[in-house]
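Let us begin with a simple case.
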Amino acid sequence: MSDLTRKSAAELAAHLVAGDVSSVEVTQAHLDRISAVDTDVHAFLHVSADEALATARDIDARRAAGEDLHPLAGVPIAVKDVVVTKGLPTTAGSKILEGWIPPYDATLVEKIKAAGLPILGKTNMDEFAMGSSTEHSAYGNTRNPWDLDRIPGGSGGGSAAAVAAFEAPLAIGTDTGGSIRQPGAVTGTVGVKPTYGGVSRYGLIAMASSLDQAGPVTRTVLDSALLHELIGGHDPRDSTSLDEPVPTLVDAARQGALGDLTGVRVGVVKELSGEGYQAGVSARFEESLELLKAAGAEVVEVSCPHFVNALAAYYLIMPAEASSNLAKFDGMRFGLRVEPTEGPVTAERVMSATRGAGFGDEVKRRVILGTYALSAGYYDAYYGSAQKVRTLIQRDFAAAFEKADVLVSPTSPTTAFKFGEKLDDPLAMYLNDVATIPANLAGVPGISLPNGLSDDGLPVGFQILAPARADERLYRVGAALEAALENAWGGPLLDQAPELETR
């Protein structure tokens, strides 16, 4: 059989069911690919080869015995290192959790294990998911497989790079302000942020609890639908979990792939285009709109006037919640503990020494911002005002969805930039998420799929947003656009990526 690492998860699943290949063969092929290219890409912080192969052998035996298995059983997956995994290191990309082995699994990991997907390992990320380039990991940069001198996006650059480099057919990411979708855009992969509460947050190391959401990272819209259906659903251990069934996402993706969007209204968000967007990004976006029209969709312009304030509101709400969530990392209960070298060993001095040594600069910056925003005398002026803006953004979405079934925009204003270009300019870095942040503030679902190459030869992403609890719309419209694009390209965009030199 041709290179197993190049096949989609759906294709691998079909071959496994047909008996054309074993899970051990599929898993070993991906482990070999990791060995060959990850020295350069650095998508993984930990590779769990023995555990993955043990799962694969178990699935092969159960399938041979005629057991009824999950459709994705035997298809390997990578997991972002902010998701707790029993028995495997979980660091959230931070020195403060270096070497921590959790005693329990996140709910989504329980579901992955129960379905029989071998876990290849844990992927690199910006520390505590704070960043847009994976340059803030305490364990080194992940590199973009399209150009190893460029960033893979963030905070989930490791998951996106692993999928783009054919090291894993599926991966888990988390998205607080764009950390699944923006890496998807710059690596030519598909990334989905489900409706807030659609996938359990139990076992995610929290950054901002009202914004965080786990979701799929894949190479096709159908693969994302398959993984989303697996990890979604109600969890009584998560108080924000939606108590309702997972939508029929796979059916929506298969329907969309037929290419008929007759009757679907697509709203172009006026405020998410124009100045600040790279010319090639804008050009590919306009071309994609024409493909949607050709599929029968009605394209209209909608205005969401308060989106221009989303970035400012986000960078008050998110740091405020992060400063609260990260207070648990105090050197007292788990993780790193640093005692002062001189003077008395008090709780306060241990906390100060531990957090000073264990947190990186970006985490410290956001904790300080958040603590300031929540402090007496500033709470109403900053955090309270930001929450009011959040309400206005939610109202903008509600009004826009009265005029359109889905909203669309470029995912990221630019293609992948070179390492170090924006590291010393936090505002320039934050602007990478200007188009993705509104969805997190409102809790609505979003998908990014690759829609071509910019003039610099690097991937561009197309973002689709749907109303809360209407995730199936993402998959129908996304699959239709994907089919039209691949017809125009003659195959998947990643086929045009330069081949990584293996060693």
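The second case is a distinct protein. As before, the sequence precedes its structure tokens.
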Amino acid sequence: MSKKKQDPDAPKSGKDLARKPRGFPDRREALIHAQGEMIDRVTAVYRRWGFEALDTGAFEYADALGKFLPDDDRPNAGVFSLQDDDEQWISLRYDLTAPLARFAAENWQTLPKPFRRYAAGPVWRNEKPGPGRFREFLQCDADTVGAAGAHADAEMVAMAAEAMRAAGAGDGEFAVRVNTRRLLNAVLDGVGANSDAARLTILRALDKLDRLGEDGVKLLLGPGREDESGDFTKGAGLDAGSIDKVMAFAQAGRATRGETLEALGRAVGTGEEAKAGLDELAAIARGLEAFGCPDSDVLFDPSVVRGLEYYTGPVFEAELLKETVDEDGNVVRIGSVGGGGRYDDLVARFTGEKVPATGFSVGISRLATAFAISGDIEALNGPVVVLNLNREDPTEALKLATELRAAGIRAEAYMGSSGMRPQMKYADRRGAPVAVMVGEDEIAKGVVTIKDLKEGAKQAKAIKSNEEYREARPGQFEAPRAEMIARIREIVEAAE
């Protein structure tokens, strides 16, 4: 019998240790709210372009996802899996596209063709987490199933640029980069990468150019690379001449789409696949012109390689360009925050017939992380806090909070058992714009005491002593009970 592996983080005493798995972040209100608003804005773009909503659920059969190990007892390579009660393996979806392919195959006869859908929700990947890379994260996708041709790809790219702006990226802060697998195939043929394994290794190496740089990718194209943690990734084994050819193609990008097409024409040669790839990008360029997409928003970039195996033609990647500085003073650049491409073979896994399809996904979690680091996600105002000055009978505080909520103002009555000062500290930590106090004196006079916490904090900066602070009581005033709602509403609206 094998011994159970000891968890190094396991508690040494009888107490349970508070710890969480890596890659599954906790999120508080400001980030949750920002992500929700981002999804609303991006899906509004998708709807405006004529796409309809679809939710396929969290679990799929492991074989339906196409992500499993046939020689392994547990199909958990890249996904989180469990066995259903009928002993079939089911997995948490690792993206929103593979479930769409299954849905389209099941319902193809009754769907409008092409079928244009959008979806938003969490996905899960059983992979090594890192900065801005999680095992559980939110995506927001749009896909067109049943439309062939570069015009459908151009529409997806143009819509992706509009979605990035809707998500909060401004001029010069993002770029949607476009390439095609046909040009990649021409280059792979040119360096003698004939096996699927060799080709996939090269594509995955190129996909890391933005993160690892030229030297790191050359190692992955050659003998292999050891990362900072000591993990070694086996390389493609190309010789120096072949590595130079691949890198020359990957670095053929220029400032405009037209200039890049000219440079690519010189880099990929005159083979049939190379010509088809150049024609494909030229057709996308014409579509982007029709959609009014400037070169600053959408670039042709031969270094773009989507890591998933099912892309068959054009591939797209959205990159956040702005650099930010974290709280430790480190320069942080998130990089890729979305991507997609054409996947004409995915539905065919179920039907046996090729169904053209193209799509794009915005990485909501990665975008929100980038905006949080840069300070673009501000802390939200908390509720108005009604202090409880009568711990024996909190009825008055409960009544006031109820009145405020009935007037549409977010409010709560303090539910703890602490005194005045801890209650004020609680209101500060909640981010409350206002604290409301009603004691015996206020009840007798028919008033409430209102403290504008934001204004009070500003005024307090100019006060030099505790005595002066107690005398001035910055931001604090009395108001007739009948005026309470109007006075508090003014403060809350001004703070938003």
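The mean pLDDT is 89. The chain has two domains: 29-181+253-259+268-373, 384-495.
Keep these points in mind for the review questions at the end of the chapter.
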